[in-house]
């Protein structure tokens, strides 16, 4: 499958297993306080064998296509760990993960697994929203001497804040699926109405603008 077909497959998978909910009439409240018409829980992909297979093969293909020099796969803690392990197995590569902060006991590790200076790594993330936590992981790896080739994620909202943050830190992300594709598939499959798409796109373009609520 080409990248467009993969994005549609993953979007359909996420909707099918209810890893993604679209609810413009009754917004979700994110931890940041942002009112959102979408909630995404990609951890559910691990519980469905077929969907898990689609996701891991998509992530592996991203690495093969965009990061062929990859020498090690690093998951974000905690959601990216299992995906990184499976993808690393598919590709026959070493794997590790990065904690949000260094442990306060033992060897005080933040990076778990071997990461020698100069190692070319790809970070596996489940969801890119504002990209803050993912950038922190990449910077921790850089401080340890790794060469971060980029990020492979399951899903991205494509928010301007995330794009700007990634650009600021000279990072690139490739996702197995994205918000625009999800909306297209959701409309085709009857999860939302076609006429709701412009309001849902407006949220993505400016989360502080709540004019989309109820539309």
Supply database-style keywords.
215 residues; alpha/beta; 6-stranded mixed beta sheet; two-stranded antiparallel sheet; 10 strands; 39% helix; globular
Tell me what you see in this structure.
The structure is a single chain. The chain has 215 residues and is of the alpha/beta class. Helix content is 39%, strand content 21%. The protein is built from 7 helices and 10 strands. The chain has helices at 3-16, 49-66, 81-91, 132-143, 160-168, 179-188, 197-205, and strands spanning 20-22, 28-29, 35-36, 38-40, 72-76, 95-98, 111-112, 120-128, 147-156, 173-178. A 6-stranded mixed sheet has the order 7-6-5-8-9-10, with helices on both faces. Helix 1 packs across helix 6, helix 2 packs across helix 3 and helix 6 packs antiparallel against helix 7. The chain is globular. The chain starts with a helix and ends in a 10-residue tail after the last helix. The model has no long low-confidence stretch (mean pLDDT 92).
- How far apart, in Å, are the first and last alpha carbons? 35 Å
Q: Care to count the β-strands?
A: 10
**Main β-sheet, spatial strand arrangement:** 7-6-5-8-9-10
Q: Helical segment tally?
A: 7
Shape: globular
Helix content: 25-40%
Q: Give the SSE string.
A: HEEEEHEHEEEHEHEHH
User: What class do helices, strands and sheet pairing give?
Assistant: alpha/beta
Q: From the alpha carbons, calculate the radius of gyration and give it in angstroms.
A: 17 Å
Provide the β-strand percentage band.
15-25%
């Amino acid at each position: 499958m080409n990248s467009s077909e993969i994005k549609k497959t993953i979007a359909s998978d996420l909707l099918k297993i209810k890893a993604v909910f679209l609810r413009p009439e009754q917004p979700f409240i994110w931890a940041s306080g942002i009112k959102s018409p979408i909630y995404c829980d990609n951890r559910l992909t691990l519980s469905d064998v077929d969907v898990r297979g689609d996701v891991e093969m998509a992530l592996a293909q991203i690495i093969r296509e965009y990061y062929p020099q990859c020498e090690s796969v690093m998951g974000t803690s905690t959601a990216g760990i299992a995906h990184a392990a499976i993808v690393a197995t598919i590709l026959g590569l070493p794997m590790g993960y990065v904690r949000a902060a260094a442990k306060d006991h033992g060897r005080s590790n933040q990076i778990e697994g071997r990461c020698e200076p100069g190692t070319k790594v790809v970070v596996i993330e489940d969801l890119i929203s504002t990209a803050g936590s993912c950038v922190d992981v990449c910077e921790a790896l850089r401080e340890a001497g790794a060469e971060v080739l980029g990020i492979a994620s399951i899903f991205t909202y494509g928010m301007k804040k995330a794009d700007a943050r990634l650009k600021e830190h000279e990072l690139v992300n490739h996702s197995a699926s994205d918000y625009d594709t999800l909306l297209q598939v959701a409309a085709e499959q009857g999860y939302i109405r076609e006429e709701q798409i412009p309001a849902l796109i407006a949220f993505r373009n400016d989360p502080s603008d709540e004019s989309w609520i109820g539309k």
